[in-house]
């Protein structure tokens, strides 16, 4: 049994980790920390866990985490740099769900997150935990940076096209719609039921922190600098991300392939991926089809009128976009079947 | 492996059975029928099942169901009487999620459902599938009538009080709030997003079909005729039932017990029940704490001002109120661990 | 034109007052205060007011409010006691939407609100602003206490029965369901979209601050002490209160009347009331039918099985339950047609 | 007083017309038709209208409509062609909310709507009722085609740019998110609360009926053929459209203007428009800010990274996207102040 610790268990990615890990056959939940809730039973804060998780929150310290084989960090960005180093020094694997180790370039990180990076020396060894790209490196990693929710959804939709050089590296647009849980479990005015409900809005049109992460991933896939316009939207639902991606095809290549060829390309690229589902041509995936599940569903379209390639991609932001992907990484690191504990069927309706 | 058939798999209890059974380690999904969708892959209608269920819908007939060990009926009331008989005749167990075999009294059934009962001869052997009451009879049953959603929620909240003769048998009030999925997956005006959303309403105040079922169950528990006022409400959420139950205590007995005694009584009554969670005194259970889970959570209150006993009880109407309870019955019938395939943690948020 | 000031304009009752008053033909919006938002245009905080309200928030002080004919207090309880006195001293009418002047008994107030009452000397002249009961006193009042949302909904449903002595004064139950806006516009965890959405829960079962207010109003109507069990519930919708009220009839009197007599009684009682709509017998009012409107809709039922009287009553908690009723009071005080500015049709869907 | 008839009053645009017209000071609601509901009081179907509208539904016939000065058609496309002709023949103005007279080209109409056009001879005189473009023609019109919801939102966002030749006429993308009421008040599976709730999906990616209408309007504004990619999405809210529009600027011209110049251009273009609100630079309009209101709010952005122009535009699909715009047209036709009856403040929260 793998002994697991969670640092910062009071947010939505924390409770989602607990939901998944409490059902995982090879995991022993060992420590869960929260400075503010120290001593409180986890199941008192999250009553869905009653009967499933007996732990109490404890102080986040290297000492408390010492018995673990792996520690998940479900903390806001910037708060866990120091502790992550101490945990690694004890020979424990670290899987970080925050943005702290996602960007290779510390300067870029500092610019987008408005604070000094507290663990630059760890950046070179951090592995970007998108299994569909980095499975081999993940196997060897000590420190894994779990991708953000928007970046997961956008990259999976564009990888096959960029890897094959079928689209231009500029002019890409990602119009993304996220459920409100993406804002986290904090008492913020904008996330109130009466503020976010029955309404739709774009935000951060001028620039969102996930932009450099997406750009970095797409650039790697393309082998040359990619630029894109990324516009996130707040959608009145709890879970889910729907990305609508407009990809400017290289005309000759796309004409040669046709829509059927594109469809085949995606199917081939993801044939062996347990958590990417290429839907039949012409599908319109719904976010609810992946509610609670680690699946990413993708559909490929070509607009009749303009010929533009339109990719639709849906995930559950808290699962494939966070905690589920984190567990997927853990399975890879510990050489377990990658789907173990993750074969949850989406909750529909 | 138990070979399972489902008759009428296109509704919400059908897809919920598929979600649960596709993860059940001892089940082999064998047949799923729908007259209207014959030949269509189940996963085309319910994309959350893609990769989990490969079956196509087939014609509902005794012949098609012949290979099964057990058949779940997830049909509307009144449509499966004849087929149920034929299935039983083949030596197959039947677990019926409709109302067809819940009432002992065929006359009462015919009066509430406005049609002749098509299988009266089966009524004497039908077992009411509330494991918390009838576990022993369920073990021996050929034909199980899975309780309705409201009746499950109300009975579990009142059983301890009635069994101990602590409350009056008249004057009980059950004010129940149900999510919209209780209305089924049919294109009805009142269940539209724009009709049921952002609104609350009572319905069937003058009498609802679940009333005789609740009354029958409570009467059995009390050992004498129980009458109650039952008012269902349509609530703008997808899943969940919240029952608020006002129980007139027998003054002397309740005073002798006190709230602590009541709490202890409930805890004792359900100590060995895997799917009833008596919450700490003073709790306010939320329906979301059981979303997707087979748990019923109960809290006991006594109103400070009036001394009235108020019981709060929450279930997921599609799980403990239908498909989950059906699987729980199957586990009992086939002598499997009762929790097998049902230890899903509620999806929160 | 009546010059109107609003103290505490940043909450939901504040913005709702602005919506209604900006359309009122006899009102000139003159001052709106908020300590925290001083200098900010109101329409920047509430973009629905762009083009309708040009005011900026200003400091709440007697001086700033001096030009007003009437001042609405839309502050949390307990914060405006001193300022209310100063405003009254300038000869300005005060219409208070908080709970500060609703209870006649200062001791009871202090006990439920856990703080000393800061303006006891004003209590004797405060008029409880339920026009359906106190219209004549309101006409003469300097200081009006606008009823709470739950109390409005419950009292209007019970007044005809209690005034006529048709029901017992104990054993009444009010099971009330409120939209989330009742929790106010404050960044509280429990009011987050992902906490309150897709879920139903009771709260404050052991006792809620609106209980003494309801009891006081019902006791006045009955002419003798009334006790009731009041259980509020949080419902996943933005606006609306649905009260389901169980009223123990005095058997002989109710039998003499019958349901038709009860219906006639309610119709007569409210025949001249512009904002109480007695629906046809057997109706099930929906909260959405009053969304944005000052109407209270009521339906009378008698449960077939138990004979219990069940009254259904719906209001918009922010309109008839707060700001609309406040404007209705203003119209009465200033001898304007009572419906002026309040004939908004409910927004359906 | 203008005598108004409504044909097809049982849908959402019908009830919305009734809400607005019942408050309009110069309108006398005279006839409302529905074949299926003949004889039923309107307020029985739509209880929000109780006390505001006394009419009963009557048979849709030229005879019944004869007393009217103007008739609104709120029927599905294709059903009112013949009746519209008869009504016009009686000297009555027709304001059609369906798609029947929006496209100049009958062939294109027949192709997108899969049926013969039943009133081709009326097409030449039909005026496209977008006041921000066609105010002068509307004044003279007998027959007005009220624009669709998506087309209104997209055109208002692009007109200033296309009229000034600032963007390319190909490469435009409109990613639009609509509330569920856009699907109409019909018992369709996909519009159920449990199907459309808590989920997001694109639909009709390959081509939607509003595409030719948008293209026609944009082409007129540009003076040359415009092509665009239009992707509609179903959003879990009742009302509202949020259009996110990606407009490829002509580089030199845009650089010359800068974002400030673009902002000024929009402000100038709409300076005298009562129902277009150009928000401050950098704003993110929310659909709820126009809930129930006839306003269109627009914000202009330029993406920092790519320089792409991004326009955000929100309307209430049932008001500015249908019934409110219809009333605005009526006001123009009858030479009334254009805002009469339409100064409703958005319902927030």
Automatic annotation (TrEMBL), chains A, B, C, D:
**InterPro entries referenced in this protein's UniProt entry, alphabetically:** AGPR, AGPR_AS, AGPR_dimerisation_dom, AGPR_type-1, NAD(P)-bd_dom_sf, Semialdehyde_DH_NAD-bd
Assigned keywords, A-Z:
Amino-acid biosynthesis, Arginine biosynthesis, Cytoplasm, NADP, Oxidoreductase
Residue span, Semialdehyde dehydrogenase NAD-binding domain: 3-141
Active site positions, chain numbering: 149
EC numbers for this chain: 1.2.1.38
Supply the source organism for this entry: Oleispira antarctica RB-8
Its annotated function is as follows: Catalyzes the NADPH-dependent reduction of N-acetyl-5-glutamyl phosphate to yield N-acetyl-L-glutamate 5-semialdehyde.
Give the location in the cell.
Answer: Cytoplasm
Enzyme class at the top of the EC tree: oxidoreductase
Would you identify the family this protein belongs to, as annotated? Belongs to the NAGSA dehydrogenase family. Type 1 subfamily.
Q: What is this protein called?
A: N-acetyl-gamma-glutamyl-phosphate reductase
> What molecular functions are annotated in GO for this chain?
N-acetyl-gamma-glutamyl-phosphate reductase activity; NAD binding; NADP+ binding
In its UniProt record, which GO terms are filed under biological process?
L-arginine biosynthetic process
The pathway where this protein functions is: Amino-acid biosynthesis; L-arginine biosynthesis; N(2)-acetyl-L-ornithine from L-glutamate: step 3/4
Please, which domain of life does this record's source organism belong to? Bacteria
What lineage is on file? Bacteria, Pseudomonadati, Pseudomonadota, Gammaproteobacteria, Oceanospirillales
Give the catalysed reaction(s), semicolon-separated.
Answer: N-acetyl-L-glutamate 5-semialdehyde + phosphate + NADP(+) = N-acetyl-L-glutamyl 5-phosphate + NADPH + H(+)
Gene symbol?
Answer: argC
Under HAMAP family, the record lists:
ArgC_type1 (MF_00150)
Q: Which Pfam families match?
A: Semialdhyde_dh, Semialdhyde_dhC_1
């Amino acid at each position: 049994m793998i002994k697991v610790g969670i640092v910062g268990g009071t947010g939505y990615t924390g409770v989602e980790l607990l939901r998944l890990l409490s059902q995982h056959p090879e995991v022993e939940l060992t420590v869960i920390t929260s400075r503010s809730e120290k001593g409180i039973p986890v199941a008192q804060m999250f009553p869905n866990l009653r009967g499933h998780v007996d732990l109490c929150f404890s102080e986040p310290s290297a000492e408390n985490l010492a018995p673990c084989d792996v520690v998940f960090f479900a903390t806001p960005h910037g708060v866990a740099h120091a502790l992550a180093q101490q945990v690694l020094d004890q020979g424990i694997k670290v899987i970080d769900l925050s943005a702290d180790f996602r960007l290779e370039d510390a300067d870029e990180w500092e610019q987008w997150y408005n604070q000094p990076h507290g663990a630059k020396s760890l950046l070179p060894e951090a592995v970007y935990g998108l299994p569909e790209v980095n499975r081999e490196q993940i196997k060897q990693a000590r420190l894994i940076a779990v991708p953000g929710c928007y970046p997961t959804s956008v990259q999976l939709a564009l990888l096959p096209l960029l890897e094959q050089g079928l689209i231009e590296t500029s002019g890409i647009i990602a119009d993304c719609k996220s459920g409100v849980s993406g804002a986290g479990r904090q008492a913020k005015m904008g996330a109130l039921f009466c503020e976010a409900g029955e309404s739709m809005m774009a935000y951060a049109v001028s620039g969102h922190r996930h932009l450099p992460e997406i750009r970095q991933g797409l650039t790697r896939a393309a082998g040359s600098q990619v630029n894109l316009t990324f516009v996130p939207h707040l959608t009145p639902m709890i879970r889910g991300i729907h990305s609508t991606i407009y990809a400017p095809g290289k005309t000759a290549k796309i004409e040669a392939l046709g829509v059927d060829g594109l469809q085949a390309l995606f199917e081939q690229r993801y044939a062996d991926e347990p958590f990417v589902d290429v839907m039949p041509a012409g599908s319109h995936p719904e976010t609810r089809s992946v509610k609670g599940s680690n699946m990413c569903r993708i559909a490929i379209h070509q607009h009749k009128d303009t010929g533009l390639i339109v990719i639709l991609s849906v995930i559950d932001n808290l699962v494939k976009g966070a905690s589920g992907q984190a567990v997927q990484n853990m399975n890879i690191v510990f050489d377990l079947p990658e789907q173990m504990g993750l074969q949850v069927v989406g909750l529909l309706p």
